Amino acid sequence: MENWKAVLYMLAFGQGMLLSISLIVRGIKKERASIFLGIILFVLALEILNAWGIQVRYHKASYAIPFWNFQSYLLLPLSLWFFAKLTTERDYVFKKRYALLFAPILLELTIRSLWRTYARSTNRSLPSLLDIPVWFFFTEILPIIGMCIVLSVYGRKLFAFQSAWKGLGFALKSGDYFRLYGFFTFLLILTLLWIAGVVFKWPVFAGVEALLTICLFGLGYIGYLSPTFFNLPTLPKPKVAEKPDFLHYDDLAELKKLHAAFHQDSLHIQSKLTLEELASQLHLPPRYVSYLINTHCASNFNNFVNGFRVEEVIRKLGDPKEQHKTVLALAFEAGFNSKSTFNQVFRQHTGKSPSQYLLVQK
Predict the structure, then answer these.
(1) The domain that contains 121 carries what CATH number?
(2) CB atoms within 10 A of CB 52
(3) Largest Cα span, the chain
(4) CA distance 18 to 32
(5) DSSP string, 239-287
(6) Locate the HTH araC/xylS-type domain: which residues (predicted)?
(7) What phi-psi label fits residue 292: left (phi over 0), alpha (psi between -120 and 50 degrees) or beta?
(8) Chain mean pLDDT for the chain
């Protein structure tokens, strides 16, 4: 049984490292958020490798390579902070000077390596660095405090994103909630176990091992299938608009009529629907309808209508009565007038291509 655990830990470590490297490379080339997700997985992969080392008593071997000296828990809150900023804030840019925030981590790794090198070269039995209160606080307690702060900020950002997404007229399904909160929930549970083990000295190490093993395999599968799975769809950037001279209109009442025109009357299935035609249907001036969409829906006319079309396609993809139709046929029925436009809009609203979405659903 113990040998099986060691093999499982090594497989999970390999899975995590491969995904970590691929994400970091991807981030360097294009998507910066992937760099920090890769760093988080790198730290977690080293943690499961540490569990493997304990299982097979590798740490005490004379030939052991001290990989644990290259692991810093301080990487977790810092990397999660930048991952959260890059995935929830539309125009956020990681600037080169922000790299200086990682300097204390380099200092930690340097001191740890020098401490071990000095002990081996002098054959002296030095105390563990963790027995030094200042070091213990800096490397164990401070990362926990950081994770608690960052997770609270990240959670609020995700909830705000969920509210904004619903405000655009999109209905979130169970898969959408997992995409939105899955990674956050995993890190939250991990942090709670971390607190229980380090602060309260509870015997939770086995639980941490199991959680990391399961999640590294799960994240590995998701990462290979869809590397941008946890990247949130881009919300349309709201336009700054002043209310036109239509003070006698009740915005909330007219907004309900606007949404009803799509939810109930399905105006979006008209492939050449224009702002003027929508305004005529609502018996409102076009400029006022544009104001409602810009201000209250944080969108423009085209994105607003296309959002309903995408939801129409997604709804029919899950309807057994529509399974005999192709995705493109459903797109045309929903109001799209070309394949390229549909693919572009679908990716913009869901973060995945139609084929990737279907693969995940299956």
Answers:
(1) 1.20.1070
(2) 19
(3) 88
(4) 18
(5) PP----S-TTS-HHHHHHHHHHHHHTT-GGG-TT--HHHHHHHHTS-HH
(6) 268-360
(7) alpha
(8) 85
Tokens 């959260």, residue located: 84
Q: Would you give the distance in Å from CA 359 to the centre of its chain?
A: 19
Residue 169 sits at φ, ψ, to 5 deg, of: 95, 15
What does DSSP assign to residue 236? P
Among 289, 296, 183, residue whose Cα is nearest residue 246 = 289
Tokens at 330, concatenated: 């459903």
Q: How far apart are CA 140 and CA 132, in angstroms?
A: 11
Q: Which domain holds residue 341?
A: 251-361
pLDDT digits (tens, 9 = 90+) for 187-231: 999 999 999 999 999 998 888 888 888 888 777 667 656 656 666
| Model confidence pLDDT, tens digit, residues 284-297 | 999 899 988 988 88
CA–CA gap between residue 358 and residue 360 (Å, rounded): 5
Distance CA 45, CA 171 (A): 35
Compute the distance between CA of residue 90 and CA of residue 15 in angstroms, rounded to an integer. Answer: 31
Question: Cβ(147)–Cβ(155) under 8 Å?
Answer: no
Do 27 and 33 meet the contact criterion of CB atoms below 8 Å apart?
Answer: yes
173 with 304, same domain? Answer: no
- Measure the CA–CA gap between 181 and 142, rounded to whole angstroms: 25
Average pLDDT over residues 25-30: 82
CA distance 361 to 359: 5
Indicate whether 255 and 218 sit together in one domain. no
Within-domain flag for 237 = no
Cα(176)–Cα(158) distance, integer angstroms: 12
Could you tell me how far CA 161 lies from the centroid of its own chain? 12
Rounded-to-integer distance, Cα 334 and Cα 329, Å: 9
Closest CA to 269 of 301, 310, 324, 327: 310
